[in-house]
User: Which sequence fits this backbone?
DNA sequence: GTTGTTTATGATTGCGCTATCACAGCCGCA
DNA sequence: TGCGGCTGTGATAGCGCAATCATAAACAAC
C-alpha cells in the first residue's frame, strides 16, 4: 500500500515486543537454537509473519558471523567459457544458501586486485578467482589472507592456493594426436593470449605431442589480435613448409583463424585440417563443423565452488589442493573426419 | 607472514589511537569530510597504511548508509544476450563504485522471488531484474518496496516500475519488411518461449507488418523445444502454402531452425529466406551468414544500471519511466542478400 | 573588547543483532 | 530434603562505524 512512506523495517526488538518475549528468544527461534519451547516458538513465528520481519544481514555480520556470500572474479562474463563457469558457480552457491558477488577484471590485474580487496573487506566468506596474471605480486598477499581463495582455470604461480583447472597439456596432446592420426606431419600451433598459463601449457602440450611422435618442425604463431590472423595465415601458406594442419590453442584463435580462412577461400578440413582447444556450442553450426577439445566449464564452476564452501566451513583442513579436470575431444568435421556430408549414403 | 594467526583486522579505533586523534577524525578523514586539517589527515592516512586498516562494510551499513551494491537477476548468465547485459551492468556499476550481486533465476519465478527477497534484505541499494514471469504476483509486492527496481528487457505487467527494454515490435517489422522487400509473400513466424512478453511483442510486430503490407495469411509456429523444430519444419514444407521466408523471433528458435534446415538439406537464403531476432556474433560464421535484428544488449545493461543508480541517489524523482532502445537490422546472407559469394566480381 | 562565524576536533550514543552471563523452574537421585 | 543437571528465558554488553552534540581555537566584524 504505502508506496513512499519510509516504513521502517521491523527489527528483532519489535518482534520481541509483539510476541511478548525477550529479544534473545526471538534470536534463538530464528537460528533454530534448541532451547526454545514449542509454544513460544509459535508465538514468535507468528509475530515475525505479522511484522514481515527479516533479519538485518549487516547487523548479523557485525557480530562476527559468516556473510553467506562468496565473490567471483572472472576476466569477462560475456565470454562463453566464463559465463558457463559463472552459471555453475551461481547454481552451486545457491544450493548452499550462498549469494555470489560478481566482478569482471577485464584481464586487468590492477582492477582485479582492487576487486579482491573490495570483496575481502566487504566482507565475503571466500573468493573464486580467475587470475588475469598468474604472477601478479598482489596474489602473494591475498593468498595468506584469512579469506579462503580458490583459483579457477589458472593457478597462481607466485603463491599457493587451492585451484581447479583442466588438463591443458594432455588436452593439447589429444588434439595433436588426432591430427597425427589423420596422417598430418606439419602441424602448426596458433594461439592468442599466450601470456596466460593455460595457453602456455597447451602450447607445451603441443610440443610434447609433436616430439613424442618424432616430429621436429614445430611451428608456433601468436595472434596479438583479430586482424593478425589473416596476415599470419598468408605468411604461413607462402612458407616452404606450409602446415597441413592447425591446432588453435584457444577460442579466440580458433574463431579468428576460421574467419581468416574463410576470407582467403581456404577450405577447412580439405585444404587444411583444424582442431581447436575449447569447444563452443555453435561450432556445430559452422561449415564444416569444428573439431575441438571440450573443457568441462560447468564442472569447473561447481567443483571450485564446492571446494571453496568446504574451506569456508572448515571441513577441509589439508593444505592447498590442485584439482585438474579431464578434457575430451569432440570430433566433428574440421579435422577432416565425417566430411563429404550429403555425398555418402545418407 | 602469519598465516593462521587470527590477527584481528584493525578497527577505526585502533587507527585513532595510533594516530593520536579521536575516532571521528579518522572517520572524517576516510569519508573526505571537509573539516580535517591537512596535517591531521596525513597522520591518519599514515596510521591507516601502517595498520592496513579497511573500513568494515557491515558496520558502515548498519549505521544506515548505502551498501554501494546492486543486485542483478537474470534468467541465465550463460545465455549470450544476458551475459553481454551482465557485463555492461558490471562495468557501469564499477565505474560508479558499486559492486554487483549476481543471481540466475533459471526462468523460475519462485527461485527469482527468493533471490529478490534475499537481496533486498541483504541489503542491496537497488535491483536490476529480468522477470521470468511478467505477471508473477510477487512482483506486486517488490514494486512497492523501498528498494528501487529496474526491470531489464521485460517490463512488469502486474505492477509499475522503471524498465528498460528494446523495440521488439518495430524490430520485428524491420525484419518482415526486409523479407517483403525481397519479394516474399508467404512469411512464417517461428518462436520459442512465446509466453515471454518480448516474444509476444515480436509476434505482434510480425502480424502488424504483414497486415500493413496487405498480406493475410500469417503463419505462426511455437517451438516447445529444440527437437520440435525438425517436426514443425517438415510439416510446414509439406503444407500447400509452404512459406518462402521465415522470421525466427528469438535466438533459440533461430538456432534450432538452422539446425533443422541443415539436417533436412534445405538451403537457407536459396530454398528459404530467414531473418532472426537477436543477433549473435557467431552468425557471421554460419554458412550462409545469418541476417538478424541486433539488440543493443550492452546499452541495455549500461542504461538500466545508470537509471537504477540515479534512483538510488535520489537524483531521479519522477514516477516510473519506461525506456525503449532502438534495434537495427544486420543484413547478411540468410535473407537472400549478398549470396553467391565468390561468384561475383570479388 | 565583545560578539559572531568558521574551522577543527572529540565524547557519546545507537544502528540490529548475538554471545555471555544470570536466573528461574523442574526433574531425578542420593 | 537437598544438590546437581537439564530446560527455558531475559538483561546486558559490544561488534565497528557515523550522527549528533559539544567544545575550542582562530579569525572577522562591530
Assistant:
Amino acid at each position: 500500500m504505502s508506496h513512499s512512506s519510509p516504513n521502517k523495517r521491523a527489527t528483532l526488538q519489535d518482534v520481541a515486543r509483539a510476541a511478548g518475549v525477550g529479544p534473545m528468544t526471538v534470536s534463538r527461534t530464528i537460528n533454530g537454537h534448541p532451547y526454545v519451547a514449542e509454544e513460544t516458538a509459535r508465538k514468535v513465528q507468528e509475530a515475525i509473519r505479522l511484522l514481515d520481519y527479516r533479519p538485518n544481514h549487516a547487523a548479523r555480520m557485525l557480530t562476527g558471523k559468516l556473510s553467506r556470500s562468496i565473490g567471483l572474479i572472472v576476466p569477462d562474463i560475456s565470454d562463453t567459457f566464463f559465463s558457463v563457469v559463472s552459471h555453475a558457480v551461481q547454481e552451486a552457491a545457491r544450493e548452499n544458501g550462498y549469494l555470489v558477488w560478481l566482478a569482471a577484471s577485464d584481464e586487468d590485474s590492477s582492477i582485479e586486485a582492487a576487486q579482491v580487496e573490495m570483496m575481502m573487506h566487504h566482507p565475503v566468506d571466500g573468493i573464486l578467482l580467475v587470475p588475469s596474471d598468474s604472477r601478479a605480486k598482489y596474489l602473494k598477499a591475498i593468498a595468506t589472507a584469512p579469506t579462503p581463495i580458490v583459483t579457477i582455470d589458472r593457478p597462481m604461480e607466485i603463491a599457493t592456493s587451492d585451484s581447479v583447472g583442466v588438463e591443458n597439456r594432455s588436452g593439447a596432446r589429444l588434439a595433436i594426436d588426432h591430427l597425427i592420426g589423420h596422417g598430418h606431419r606439419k602441424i602448426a600451433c596458433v594461439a592468442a593470449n599466450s601470456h596466460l598459463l593455460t595457453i602456455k601449457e597447451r602450447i607445451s602440450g603441443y610440443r610434447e605431442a609433436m616430439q613424442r611422435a618424432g616430429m621436429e618442425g614445430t611451428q608456433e604463431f601468436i595472434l596479438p589480435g583479430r586482424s593478425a590472423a589473416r596476415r599470419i595465415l598468408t605468411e604461413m601458406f607462402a612458407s616452404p613448409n606450409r602446415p597441413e594442419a592447425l591446432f588453435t590453442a584457444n577460442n579466440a584463435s580458433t574463431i579468428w583463424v576460421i574467419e581468416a580462412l574463410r576470407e582467403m577461400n581456404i577450405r577447412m578440413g580439405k585444404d587444411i585440417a583444424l582442431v581447436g582447444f575449447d569447444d563452443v556450442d555453435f561450432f556445430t553450426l559452422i561449415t564444416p563443423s569444428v573439431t575441438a577439445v571440450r573443457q568441462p566449464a560447468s564442472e569447473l564452476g561447481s567443483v571450485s565452488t564446492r571446494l571453496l564452501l568446504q574451506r569456508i566451513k572448515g571441513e577441509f583442513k589439508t593444505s592447498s589442493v590442485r584439482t585438474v579436470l579431464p578434457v575430451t575431444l569432440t570430433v566433428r568435421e574440421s579435422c577432416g573426419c565425417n566430411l563429404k556430408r550429403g555425398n555418402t549414403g545418407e
